[in-house]
Amino acid sequence: MADQQAVTQLLTEAGARAAHYLATLDDRPVQPTRAAIDRLTELGGDLPVATTDPFTVLRLLDEIGSPATVASAGRRFFGFVIGGSLPVTVAANWLTTAWDQNAGLFVASPTAARLEEYALRWLLDLLHLPAEAAGAFVTGTSMAHVTGLAAARHALLWRQGWDAENDGLFGAPPIKVVLSAEAHTTLIKALAIVGFGRNNLIRVPVDNQGRLRIQDLPPLDSSTLLCIQAGNVNSGAFDPVDELCDRARDAGAWAHVDGAFGLWAAVVPELAHLVKGAEKADSWSTDAHKWLNVPYDSGLLFCRDADALRTAMSAPAAYLPQQIAREPSHYTPELSRRARGVEVWAALRHLGRQGVTDLVERCCQYATVFADGLRAAGYEILNDVVLNQVLVSFGTPEVTQRVIKRIQEDGTAWCGGTVWQGRTAMRISVSSWATTGDDIERSLEAMLAAARQEIAGS
Ligand SMILES: *Cc1c(COP(=O)(O)O)cnc(C)c1O
Predict the structure, then answer these.
(1) How far, in Å, from the CA of 86 to the mean position of ligand 1?
(2) Is the pLDDT of residue 366 over 80?
(3) By 3-state DSSP, what share of the chain in percent is helix, strand and coil, each rounded to 5?
(4) Which site from 72, 340, 409, 430 is most exposed, i.e. has the minimal number of CB atoms within 10 Å?
(5) Is 265 within 8 Å of 231 (Cβ atoms)?
(6) Quick one: DSSP state of residue 244?
(7) C-alpha 147 – ligand 1 centre gap (Å)
(8) What is the distance between the alpha carbons of residues 268 and 275, in angstroms, rounded to a whole number?
(9) Ligand 1: lining residues by beta carbon, under 6 Å
């Protein structure tokens, strides 16, 4: 394959296959068929001894792999909180992959390092976060949490005369960790990874929307880590961000915000009140692969105290360059990694401030259309629809589960289920750049038809 013409041909074919995949995505059922999934075994078996030519490998991937994918990049996928990928970000991803840059070091990729810096500055501005905050480009909000919590751990222990990075955690002074009963499972996991311990967390009760009840907040002090949720994964609800940030500040506590998708409310003037005061926190996690609609995997961590983040993350070594510019690996757990900042830059450069605002606003309006339509047909909406999330019950838990199954089997749209405060519900999350008003209408019709058929017993 040293032949340049063959390389060009291969990449052209990959482009054509990818374009065909995307062009036909909305005409196929969202869920792959059983037969398509069964065929995946043809990609397994024993490792071949002989070489297979790259065109055959690509054809296998497309002919067997593509049909067994979930059309989550499509316009009528409302499961979990999954955005699509803006075409410009897919294109940027291909080019970046061809560059094959190691984004961990400025010297290994000035382009990747600089684009991260520019994107970071745009993001802090867009999300109304402090301009002096440092940032890390990681795989998702899970790793953003790990990164941010490691910075918090450093700062909270250093204040108490303990050097966590050099002396470890055994024998360290205690840190009080406060978060709501509705904190996202990845935050609990991150706290466990960083050494806070699942059994050492103070879980504050929540109200009927899943918001932390401020009247139940324990006293905070300068050795407290307070985690605040901006956007509940089920209801979309926000903890009382402003008040919690004030309380943390007054006490000298570290405030960490889980804003995986909710942080983006800041870009829409009518929604910004939901995250008012978030700029007073110390660290913030969010995803780019959700609402910014870049390809997986892409998450972001912002940290007000750049020194705390650098101390927690840097790994000096004689063969690695000293700080000559912003050294990306001084802010992330990884040294070598892909240049995911390029896609973030491309999305922002393409959409502009107005485009990001329109995207977030449109998704939230569509969520309201779903809620209104379902409510008008007599089904119960279990949450206040404040953002892009809708929780609907079609009756008893069994009926709701069977309606979800019918909707998934019909294939027009895809939604998953959940249990919300003891009630079985279907979750709708509108997060894709590609979804149109027509998609909402078609999807709503399909949902109502499935519910009618289920209830009529047909
Ligand atoms: C999705 C989500 C996460 C986890 O993000 P990943 O990108 O999957 O790691 C954490 N918190 C909330 C509120 C989320 O919605």
Answers:
(1) 20
(2) yes
(3) 50, 15, 40
(4) 409
(5) yes
(6) H
(7) 14
(8) 11
(9) 81, 140-142, 184, 186, 231, 233, 258, 260-261, 287, 299
Give me 146's structure tokens. 């790990």
**Per-residue model confidence as pLDDT tens digits over 165-220:** 999 999 999 999 999 999 999 999 999 999 999 999 999 999 999 999 999 999 99
Distance 162 CA to ligand 1 centre (A): 31
Retrieve residue 81's tokens.
């909180």
Amino acid at 327: E
- The β-bridge relationship of strands 176-180 and 201-204 is parallel
Q: What gap in Å lies between CA 407 and CA 394, rounded to an integer?
A: 12
In the block, tokens 């912002």 appear at 302
Cα 234 to ligand 1 centroid, rounded to whole Å: 11
**Bridge partner list, 226:** 178, 255
What is the distance in A from the centroid of ligand 1 to the CA of 41?
31
pTM above 0.90, yes or no: yes
Question: What's the CA-to-centroid distance between 323 and ligand 1, angstroms?
Answer: 32
Name the residue among 434, 307, 411 with its Cα closest to residue 362.
434
First to last CA, the chain: 57
If one residue of 146, 187, 233 were mutated to test the ligand 1 pocket, choosing by the most ligand atoms within 8 A of its CB, it would be 233
On whether the CB atoms of residues 220 and 226 are closer than 8 A, the answer is yes
Candidate from 137, 141, 274, 388 with most ligand 1 atoms within 8 A of CB, to mutate: 141
Tokens standing for 430?
Answer: 């509108």
